[in-house]
């Protein structure tokens, strides 16, 4: 079992750290919010009063932070972890951030002789709790192989996408496609309902036809079609509109950087941004159907 420092114990990091504890790892945790640290302590974690203190003796340093600026703040600068870490722990950043920042921090780690992978996740809070996340990793093959045993205790699908930053790129490509599938599915269902169709009947027809897709099959956005998904529970998340807007912003930045045409992703981003601005940021992303009613 490994010694792991875990920094960032929010909606995702909390349950991920809990799964490492359940698997028998020695986990030392830190978050700016002391209540979150306390919750993990009650589950058996050691606690620290700073990110650096949490890393003492660690073989793995994991971060699960909101955005790129938080990751830079934790790792870079004179008092950042990279300048102060002892030993040679493997650094695993699972936050969803822009690939440029991921590459910048990985390169700074490499200058200090440290291995680092970007390892953003897909699956959301339910998968974080169940230990069934998908990890999309960027970094060297050697660093990915080193990370695998720890990642396997938090997820069921581990992918090596390519060099540093590739995990982040894979993540935003997937989420941009998801946004297009969800908005398209919502649009088709609403068109059918507006023209007198029952959404369940239409869903069954499309599931057996060429319109079948993940949003329709697993996460139907029309209330009452599937009992267990957010649309049938007042669109309680799930995966919040705010997070989809964030991921689509990262996708648009990447597209600018590479001069890629992303007309569908761009349209989806505009729809989600307008939906957020109407005050629906904390609803599940399938609530985009409401914007099309
Ligand atoms: P969150 O806001 O719930 O948690 C982030 C935590 O980081 C907070 O507890 C915050 O206090 C802590 N933090 C911030 N700066 C810190 C610092 N300097 N030192 C220590 N702790 C610090 O966010 P979340 O929902 O857990 O998401 C984390 C990341 O995972 C984000 O990048 C998000 O985009 C991504 N993600 C989230 C989901 C989801 O469904 N929530 C799904 C996939 C990916």
TrEMBL record:
It comes from Endozoicomonas euniceicola. Pathway: Amino-acid degradation; L-valine degradation. GO terms for molecular function: 3-hydroxyisobutyrate dehydrogenase activity. InterPro entries: 3-OH-isobutyrate_DH-rel_CS, 6-PGluconate_DH-like_C_sf, 6PGD_dom2, 6PGDH_NADP-bd, HIBADH, HIBADH-like_NADP-bd, HIBADH-related, NAD(P)-bd_dom_sf. This is 3-hydroxyisobutyrate dehydrogenase. Residues 3-162 form the 6-phosphogluconate dehydrogenase NADP-binding domain. Keywords: Branched-chain amino acid catabolism, NAD, Oxidoreductase. Belongs to the HIBADH-related family. The gene is mmsB. Its EC number is 1.1.1.31. Residues 165-291 form the 3-hydroxyisobutyrate dehydrogenase-like NAD-binding domain. Gene3D superfamilies: N-(1-d-carboxylethyl)-l-norvaline Dehydrogenase, domain 2, NAD(P)-binding Rossmann-like Domain. PROSITE patterns: 3_HYDROXYISOBUT_DH. It catalyses: 3-hydroxy-2-methylpropanoate + NAD(+) = 2-methyl-3-oxopropanoate + NADH + H(+).
